[in-house]
Specification:
This protein is an all-alpha fold. The chain has 4 domains: about 55 residues; about 270 residues, no CATH class; about 230 residues, no CATH class; about 120 residues, no CATH class. The chain contains 33 helices and no strands. The chain is elongated, with a radius of gyration of 56 Å.
Length: about 950
């Protein structure tokens, strides 16, 4: 297109034309003069006034024409130097101004000079033409009126020819503007048709050979050479590449509108008409451009971290995105790609698939309509946008009335298409192969992109929700065939399986890591005897600690806050009753909460039936080995921690650098830690952790067996340490007295009965059993106490020798023999050992027959103190009927006889001197 001259250039040209007479009379300026108004030449010796010379007399105005010699005569050297500096500064400023003016306006000056020369030449030619007209007009002959009247019919024909010529030129001149408008509206088929029509107009206007039915411009006296036509066609010819390029790029764009197939068909027909491409090549171009659009949709998707841990925000991020927003973004990204894939294969099939005479392809119907001379049934079923003709095209253009004078050959123009040629059709086998190849490639790219998108999903529930939505979308899609739907579903199921495995493996690994970290921190707290570990070392104290109750302030905040506080209070009471001390509950809750969350995720997957059952079974089979590995890892962590504590305790005992008291303290701490590990194992055996993790049956049974063995190992280690400590203390405080001879006969005893050392030992064992923690069942606690008491008796008997013979020792053994009778026939071996030792000691001592009655009273008096070491109460039907003993709900072995003088079972501190001053009644008063 030719560039229209701007208003500024026209005005400058007019101004240049008006100055031509002045340029003719232009004279060179004298040296030192300026052609610019207001511009002073630097020849003046005095610059404008400034502050530096304001104090001087106003002699600068009169020194413009002074000779330099006279200047040096009138003024001092300093004043002359100052004048020199001012003149130099003025010259530099003018030089800079000229440099800027030339740099900024140099192009305009060149153009102005060129325009001035061109205008001068044009003016000269106009003057010459006027001179020729002045000489030729008077010499012209006057026309004959009669001849003009006789040629009126010929003038009418000449006028019609001129009108047709004007219509040709008008349409050709307006074609660029129409093409721009059609390209902007993305009506590429209309633009291509108009371009082809403009090419026909150009050929009609410029060619010399005339066919039948066409205008013969030379016969009407009109020259056939039109320079304007050729120049305009050069402008129009450039639109061919623009139309094809814009049409090709528009194939990348995606729109889910109903007119999508019509637009694609018109674009492909544009490429077929303008570039004479076979329809097979247009199909290739269409699929290639849709691949480009698919890649663009991948690049517009959300950014995700590479490790799948989207919860880890970068530095500076204040809040994480809501999970619903993340799920919606992933779903929208997959939906965009699925729509492109489905609409591409659907459009290709609807445009190129030919199913016979009853249902031809859309492209075939359009080509038939273009080449048909009359409307056909197939053409009537076409959309209006595809029913292209020159008449319809000219009717949509402005100034449509002027196009009526065009010849019928122009108004009925149709591009020639050979319907029988192979380039005007696509074989169905080739169409199927191209679509199958493109579809598989697109699905593969979707898998690669969606695998990254799925990394942002953190739960199985989110993954399964995406899968359900995608499957519903695929089932509802009318553009996909059954085989294509199956391929897409399989691809999505593969992605779901991968991400599900990553999610549960990450959850199981996190569970293992959290358990290991929490166990190590709890072990460190127990070893350092931190304040929070005191209660864990003695669970019985935690049972009697009051849980924090909801405050009135929380109740005033509303029902929601009150309900939350009540739930916290309820949970604290439940943990307290269950014996969940702070450290123990912290370790167990780490894996129990995670296991419960994982179980909810798995339940959301497993409850889906129907066509998802196969995938659910596969996921369950893939999950079980990972769950089994976690169960084994939990057991290994506990076992390794216990072995580590044992090794550290053994190395400390083998070292001789530590004092005995310090070694004892370290061993006691090690036993507390091992007992803590045993309590964890005991809680895990009865916890919901195993059922929530949902490992295999064999792995679950193995886990239960191993975790029970760890608990028994910890209890055995505690039992040995406790019994060894109690027996050592008993021997230290009691047996030394026996060997010294102070308690070797009956006369030295104030009252027959168990010694205070024995009672202290039994109470220590009872306290240790209680501090071990509450058992889930009473029978388990009693079996633990029973085994500990057995071990105590056997350890005590192993340390007795023949020289340790005393009446008090005999009483202690008799008391233990009485305790063994309470446990029934299962203690036959222990009773036999005690009987053997009692028989050996009785050879040197004479004990009265009242010994059994006295020991029975001791049992009755101490049954509350020794309750953890006594057997559980018998059912009402199995209780012995004894008329002398009254039944009591608290005293299961009977009520002791009330006596005035009772020997206490332990050594009590004597009352202080101020004890008598207390207001307490005496025994006699009572």
């Amino acid at each position: 297109m030719a560039r229209r001259p701007s208003t500024n250039s026209v005005s400058s040209s007019i101004a240049s034309t008006s100055t031509l007479p002045q340029l003719a009379n232009f004279k060179p300026l004298p040296l030192g003069a300026s052609s610019l108004p207001g511009f002073k030449t630097p020849t003046s010796p005095w610059p404008p006034h400034s502050a530096s010379l304001s104090a001087q007399p106003q002699q600068s105005a009169t020194t413009n024409g002074i000779d330099p010699d006279e200047l040096f005569t009138k003024y001092t050297v300093a004043e002359v130097k100052n004048v020199q500096l001012r003149l130099g500064a003025d010259a530099d400023a003018k030089q800079e101004e000229l440099r800027l003016m030339v740099g900024e306006r140099y192009r305009d000056l060149l153009q102005a000079s060129t325009s001035i020369i061109s205008i001068a030449q044009s003016s000269k030619r106009v003057l010459d033409a006027l001179d020729d007209m002045r000489t030729s007009i008077p010499a012209a002959e006057e026309p004959h009126l009669l001849r003009r009247a006789s040629m009126s019919g010929k003038d009418d024909s000449h006028l019609k020819t001129l009108q047709s010529l004007a219509a040709h030129l008008k349409l050709l001149l307006d074609t660029p503007e129409h093409l721009w408008r059609l390209i902007e509206k993305k009506k590429f088929l209309h633009a291509a048709w108009l371009f082809l029509l403009a090419r026909v107009l150009h050929r009609v206007l410029v060619r010399e050979d005339v066919e039948e039915g066409e205008e013969n411009w030379k016969a009407h006296g009109i020259d056939e050479q039109f320079p304007l036509v050729q120049r305009q066609w050069d402008v129009v010819a450039q639109f061919r590449t623009q139309i094809t390029h814009k049409a090709t790029l528009s194939l990348r764009e995606f729109s889910a509108s109903v007119e999508l197939y019509q637009d694609i068909c018109s674009i492909l027909l544009t490429l077929h008409l303008l570039e004479s491409r076979p329809l097979t090549d247009t199909l290739t171009v269409f699929l290639f451009q849709r691949s480009k659009g698919l890649q663009a949709s991948f690049s517009r998707t959300l950014k995700v971290p590479s490790n799948g841990q989207s919860s880890r925000l970068p530095n500076g991020s204040a809040h994480a995105r809501p999970r619903k927003v993340v799920t919606r973004e992933v779903r929208e990204s997959i939906e965009a790609v699925l729509e492109i894939i489905a609409m591409t294969v659907g459009a290709a099939r609807d445009i190129f698939r030919d199913e016979g005479f009853d249902r031809p392809s859309l492209m075939g119907r359009v080509l038939d309509f273009i080449q048909s001379e009359s409307p056909t049934p197939n053409g009537s079923s076409l959309p209006p946008e595809l029913q292209m003709s020159t008449q319809n095209l000219l009717g949509t253009l402005p100034s449509g009335s002027q196009h009526l004078v065009l010849p019928p050959s122009i108004r009925s123009y149709k591009p020639y298409i050979d319907l029988d040629s192979s380039s005007s059709s696509v074989s169905q086998a080739q169409l199927s192969d191209r679509l199958r190849e493109w579809f598989h490639k697109a699905v593969h790219e979707l898998q690669s992109a969606a695998e990254k998108w799925f990394l942002d999903l953190q739960t199985l529930r989110e993954v399964w929700a995406i899968r359900t939505w995608v499957r519903n979308w695929i089932n509802d899609s009318a553009h996909l065939e059954e085989t294509e739907q199956t391929i897409l579903k399989s691809a999505i199921d593969v992605l779901v399986g991968k991400q599900a495995a990553e999610i549960w493996r990450s959850a199981l690994n996190d569970m293992e890591h959290a358990f290991r970290t929490k166990l190590d921190s709890a072990s460190t707290a127990l070893s350092e005897c931190a304040s929070e570990s005191v209660i864990d070392a003695s669970p019985a104290k935690h049972l009697f600690q009051a849980a924090p109750t909801p405050s009135l302030y929380e109740a005033s905040l509303g029902s929601t806050s009150m309900l939350s506080s009540y739930q916290k209070y309820k949970s604290a009471l439940q943990r307290q009753v269950a014996g969940r001390t702070p450290l123990l509950d912290g370790v167990l809750r780490v894996i129990e909460n995670r296991a419960e969350a994982l179980h909810k995720d798995l339940r959301a997957v497993r409850k889906d039936e129907g066509d998802s059952r196969k995938l659910t079974i596969q996921l369950n089979e893939a999950y079980r080995p990972d769950a089994d590995r976690l169960c084994g890892a939990i057991v290994d962590i506990l076992s390794f921690s216990m072995a580590k504590v044992e090794d550290e305790s053994g190395r400390a005992n083998a070292s001789h650098s530590c004092r005995k008291q310090h070694l004892k303290l370290r061993e006691e701490t090690a036993v507390h830690i091992i007992v803590f590990f045993g309590r964890i194992a005991n809680e895990l055996s009865a916890s919901d952790f195993l059922s929530n993790v949902s490992c295999g049956t064999d792995a679950g049974d193995e886990f239960q067996a191993k975790i029970t063995a760890l608990y028994e190992l910890a209890v055995d280690r505690w039992r040995k340490y406790t019994v060894r400590s109690v027996v050592a203390k008993y021997r230290k405080t009691c047996l030394s007295l026996f060997t010294s001879g102070r308690a070797r006969d009956s006369a030295s005893l104030k009252q027959p009965g168990p010694s205070s050392s024995l009672m202290q030992a039994l109470l220590s064992i009872s306290a240790s059993v209680r501090d071990l923690g509450p058992s889930k069942e009473l029978s388990c606690g009693k079996s633990l106490a029973e085994a500990t008491l057995k071990h105590f008796i056997t350890s005590l008997l192993d340390g007795l020798h023949s020289q340790n013979v005393s009446i008090q020792l005999l009483w202690d053994l008799k008391f233990l023999r009485k305790l063994s009778e309470l446990w029934g026939s299962e203690w036959r071996e222990i009773a036999a050992l005690l009987d053997h030792e009692i028989t050996r000691l009785s050879q040197s001592e004479i004990i009265g027959d009242h010994l059994d009655d006295s020991l029975s009273e001791d049992i009755l008096r101490t049954q509350l103190l020794l309750a953890p070491l006594l057997p559980p109460p018998l059912p009402p039907t199995d209780k012995p009927k004894n008329k002398d003993r009254k039944p009591s709900p608290l005293l299961q072995f009977g009520i002791p006889v009330v006596e005035q003088q009772v020997q206490p079972p332990m050594d009590l501190v004597k009352p202080g001197p101020r004890f008598g001053q207390l207001l307490v009644g005496s025994t006699a008063v009572r």
